[in-house]
Amino acid sequence: MKTRTVRIGTRKSPLALWQAEFVKSELEKRFPDIAFALQRIETTGDKILDSPLSKIGDKGLFTRDIERALLRGDIDLAVHSLKDLPTQTPDGLAISAITKREDTRDVLISKSPTTLLALPKKAKLATGSLRRRSQVLALRPDLQIHDIRGNLNTRFKKFFDSNLDAMLLAFAGVHRLELDAHISEILSHDFILPAVGQGALAIETRDGDTDIISMVQQLNDPETELATKAERSLLRALEGGCQIPIGAFATFADGRFTLSAFVGSLDGKETLRETIVKSGITTVAKAEAAGIELADILRRNGCERILNAIRAS
């Protein structure tokens, strides 16, 4: 006999449902006496598919409607791709857990086996991300970049129905939907840095809802939390949304914390990439301070000029 039902808010896309089902399954293992039910919510970003994200304003496009349902009490917790969440959490809500991260790299999808560097001259490459666009054009300025929108399954259908030569996506989503067979190349971070928070899931709750918070915190991965909090702190410091060409990746190895970041122009002609290595990053406050430190380095090296030119356009 279940003692209660906890409602989990999620987008309707197949990938979002996979993510929510994963969290639901993990919670069910830990709380067998509680029923967990998914509540599917269509977001603004899911409705507007005929315009590039960069043209319609991106902050909260895929999360705001779910957060409103959470604030109203229609759901008890929400599952998001962390990279979709704005760096400022709405009053009354909190990110109460961040799950262990999947591989953060981007992948090349193509109709015949190839690599990014081996694509034919002036090949047509699809991406909906300005971050990917900037980094790819820095490597291959000859490529023709085409915008592509929609959930992952929709993008695959659009791609294979088109005359496009290749497409860039996040490994995490492709892998979670078992579409690995379409991957032509997994791109090294030396080529393309990921989006802030890429590969991690965020579980959002009402601030002060101690019962739900204590539940979801059992799914929190401390190392992923510190890494992504550093990345989000950097993004917040630069005032960049997910449709500004900023990439970042933080990791721990051999007791050292490494944070790298990229800022570039839309055409890839101007790029900045910096890395800091720290020790003793053991708290969220220290991780966030590292993000601010790297943002300051990027500013001193001219990233504000690049970002202001993008915002003006």
Could you give a quick summary of the protein structure above?
With 313 residues, this protein is an alpha/beta fold. It has helices at residues 14-30, 44-47, 53-56, 64-72, 130-139, 152-160, 171-176, 210-216, 222-237, 284-300, 303-312; strands spanning 4-10, 34-40, 77-81, 93-98, 106-110, 124-126, 144-146, 166-170, 183-186, 201-206, 246-253, 256-264, 271-279. It has 3 domains: 1-99 and 200-220, Periplasmic binding protein-like II (D-Maltodextrin-Binding Protein, domain 2), CATH 3.40.190; 106-186, Periplasmic binding protein-like II (D-Maltodextrin-Binding Protein, domain 2, 3-Layer(aba) Sandwich); 222-313, Double Stranded RNA Binding Domain (2-Layer Sandwich), CATH 3.30.160.40.
Number of helices: 11
How many beta strands in the DSSP annotation?
13
Fill in the CATH topology of the largest domain.
D-Maltodextrin-Binding Protein, domain 2
- Write out the CATH superfamily name of the largest domain: Periplasmic binding protein-like II
Q: What's the CATH class of the largest domain, please? A: Alpha Beta
Average pLDDT figure: 93
Strand content: 15-25%
The CATH architecture assignment of the largest domain turns out to be 3-Layer(aba) Sandwich
Q: What's the story with the biggest beta sheet?
A: 5 strands, mixed
Order of helices and strands: EHEHHHEEEEHEHEHEEHHEEEHH
As a whole number of angstroms, the C-alpha radius of gyration is: 19 Å
Instruction: Output the structural class.
Output: alpha/beta
Number of domains: 3
Helix content: 25-40%
Order of neighbouring strands in the sheet with most strands = 2-1-3-10-4
Shape descriptor: globular
